[in-house]
Amino acid sequence: MELGPCRIPDANGTKYFNEAWNSKANVFFVDQPIGVGYSYADYGEFVVSCTMVLRKAQGTSEDAAADIAAFVAIFFENFSKFKGRAFHMAGESYGGRYIPLFASAVYDQNARLIEAGITPINLTSAIIGNGWTDGPSMVLSYYDMVCTAASVPAFADIASCVHLKQLVGSYSTQAN
Q1: Is the pLDDT of residue 130 over 70?
Q2: Which SS3 state, helix, strand or coil, does residue 45 take?
Q3: Which of 92, 104, 141, 149 has its CA 20 to 30 A from that of 74?
Q4: Do residues 83 and 121 touch, judged by C-beta distance below 8 A?
Q5: Phi and psi dihedrals of 130, rounded to 5?
Q6: 6 three-class SS
Q7: How many CB atoms lie within 10 A of CB 13?
Q8: Residues linked to residue 90 through DSSP beta bridges, in sequence order
Q9: By the 8 A CB rule, do 101 and 139 touch?
């Protein structure tokens, strides 16, 4: 990965990589909720948020956003040497759904932090790479992306493209 200070060029170990992101920035990762990304629970634990308890409901992306905003505030309050620094939130894939919610929760929380006499979070940007943002629109574009020269030469075989065109057509009909 481009983020860390090391590369693993072969089976003999690691090699220092001085152009990694963490040479210019402080980086931390939060996989939320348990079970996404590299996160796991040893004994099948399930984390229940305060909003879930109040609503007696399953967790939602909005619940996760409230938890992330609380975590970020607690992090900066406990690691004060980072207070006030530019804070960038980034995600990929389902981060297309999470990051806007998380950034909004952090931003909205700033007014409450100021009222409480706590330094607000210097949310500087929200970054989404290859994000899942609008499922129906994205699914309908798969055929164009892999079977036509929409952006790059087609790379799927003809049989796969015929099958994909049929699937997209039936999905499009059902969606309308």
Answers
A1: yes
A2: coil
A3: 92
A4: no
A5: 50, 45
A6: strand
A7: 8
A8: 127
A9: no
Beta-carbon contacts of 28 under 8 Å, excluding residues fewer than 6 positions away, are: 75
d(CA 22, CA 104): 25
Amino acid present at 153 = P
Please, are residues 21 and 36 in contact by the beta-carbon 8 Å criterion? no
User: Tokens representing 6?
Assistant: 């090391």
Q: What is the share, in percent, of the chain residues with pLDDT greater than 70? A: 81
Residue 99's beta-bridge partner residues?
none
Nearest to 72 by CA among 37, 122, 36: 122
Q: Name every residue whose Cβ is closer than 8 Å to that of residue 70 and which is 6 or more positions away in sequence.
A: 109
d(Cα 1, Cα 84) in Å, to the nearest integer? 28
pLDDT tens per residue across span 2-30 = 677 888 888 998 888 888 777 777 878 77
Regarding pTM above 0.90, the answer is no
For residue 76 the two structure tokens come to: 């900066």
Strand-pair category, 87-93 with 123-131? parallel
